């Protein structure tokens, strides 16, 4: 196990994130940001708990035009929030279906509403409203004069570019994932129920130092898999299977997200060819991932190699994405995404193709973009389909 | 490892769930249900994947007044959805920020809007809007005449009462959790960094047969912990620590949710007393959990014992909740919840109290309510605080 970085972040990191947000808020005429989701609340506060798994209680963080954010949270989280840099923590005894934070929020936002001000919330692509819609409607209905703006692009522009400390965490979990995949040939074998391989993989990732393995999907079928998002079945691995495992493991709240492909006993020619094409598509993606290029450029660099074997483009919708506090983050390597790649973005390269009779293959690596090009965070996949 | 039940459900189970929903929809004048979240989509379709971890793509399931549900989903999920009982699967290549399913939904809902019909969505307590709010506003704005009703109570009434097959899965994962906790004294020890105990617990749960351990929180401090939702620190366990571990482990998409308390080396008198009070509060909850009682009754049965030591009621907000496809589900054992307990509800009993200088203790067991009272799904906690 390699030495782990320090957990958490110094207060200066949260102060810098908040100040950057406040600069953009001033430019865009926002009188506050109201954040509701686990990653957004954690990004500005450092509040880190798996308790978000419970859908029962809403949590709110308000970023004012100046000064520290204000937390409006269930009392059960007060002790943990007091350990962050947040000073102004307002709580209620939740759950309280009649008033789950609404009157506290109304009190906070009323002065802004009174002067016809504007609050930004996340309502754009890749977001969700992490509170009851009925409560949201009641909140807004009780604040006549309040304007709501979409703050998705603002928050996205901050979160897409990682700090040195974030990159250190991401590099650490990518290393753990790489060492876990390196062990797969030791614990995967013909006759093994696929679900047992999943359990063995999770156990190995924990042994290698992962905090958790919240995401593990895969496929295993004769001559190639047809699906890339399934949980495992009890079907035993057979000679001639192509096996794919794709993990989102975490360390200190940061994800790796990559996969590896293996053949059991023997590899068929078509799968070997698909593997080679995707390996070279990934190389093209690595070469294209430089500051100033767009996500569309990255997409096209990979797609031009994929087209050797599959001109249709597949049905995955994109060939990679941002990576950080979530398994998938903005941007998308897709024809629709003109986002300009910047130094210190952490990205996945995830070329895929359809082949044979309804088969699909996916490769994936994780990179950080530096001034002079991409650095791999993952140990590069073998250039030829490994046979177990 | 005990023999696992069969994975998945027969088609008849989904048909029965759908028909029950449709009966209630007819009574309430609903022309359809539009479902957006992982558990709601899975409940009516059987669509089961960890891919929901990625926030990028919305997923939609529409329950019509008669017949099978209709899936409107990203193409990447089509192969997996085709393995369920759903026949009508409409897909688009997602992500597509300009039209992430909105035109497909508009096409589906236009006839209902045209006749001034009503569609139910989940907008009440313990729900979230699992799609971009901007897209939702655009969808509704494009369907003049469409009425939106809150379907939370409808879906809640179905999901709160479990089928025999669901109870079998819940019993299986509660058994796995119980056997894992039984091993804690074997792998927990003084000097062990708390985060290493978390890793050891996860590994043991997997060994015992859990598919995953998506939720594991705890506390470990001298003479009692002060927080019950934290991730672990690297602090080594010390003699005199009171340690609590609370897990939501899963099998085939169903959760256990319970905790256990331990003392390291020695237990202080106050913590032993808190443990005894909570153990007896749980007994009172078990005795009170009968069909016809309300969640308020359950709350009061436990609270009357807790009051021996803590009259304030603590800050957790409730003393247990429903359990199933989510770590926490409706109802809540709280003064505000008059839900009548029914046969085949699966519930947690989770009494807690504050004591000493800012300490808190929590106990938790999982039960299924039968005609003649509660059956434990978890192996009952020891009546006295175990010392490791």
Describe this structure in words.
Chains A, B: It comes from Leisingera methylohalidivorans DSM 14336. Chains A, B: InterPro entries: Creatin/AminoP/Spt16_N, Creatinase/aminopeptidase-like, Creatinase_N, Pept_M24, Peptidase_M24B. Chains A, B: Residues 17-161 form the Creatinase N-terminal domain. Chains A, B: Residues 169-369 form the Peptidase M24 domain. Two copies of one chain form a homodimer. In chain A, strands 1-2-3-4 form a four-stranded mixed β-sheet. The first copy, chain A, has helices spanning 11-28, 38-45, 78-81, 102-114, 133-141, 152-159, 164-187, 194-207, 269-288, 295-306; strands at residues 33-35, 60-63, 70-74, 88-92, 118-121, 147-150, 212-222, 241-251, 254-255, 258-263, 321-322, 329-332, 346-349, 352-355, 359-362, 365-370, 373-376. The relative contact order of chain A is 0.11. The first copy, chain A, has 388 residues and is of the alpha+beta class. The first copy, chain A, starts with 10 loop residues before the first helix and ends in a 12-residue tail after the last strand. Chain A folds into two domains: 11-159, Creatinase/prolidase N-terminal domain (Creatine Amidinohydrolase, Chain A, domain 1), CATH 3.40.350.10; 164-376, Creatine Amidinohydrolase (Alpha-Beta Complex). Chain A is built from ten helices and 17 strands. Chains A and B meet through helix 3, helix 5, helix 8 and strand 7 of A and helix 3, helix 5, helix 8 and strand 7 of B.
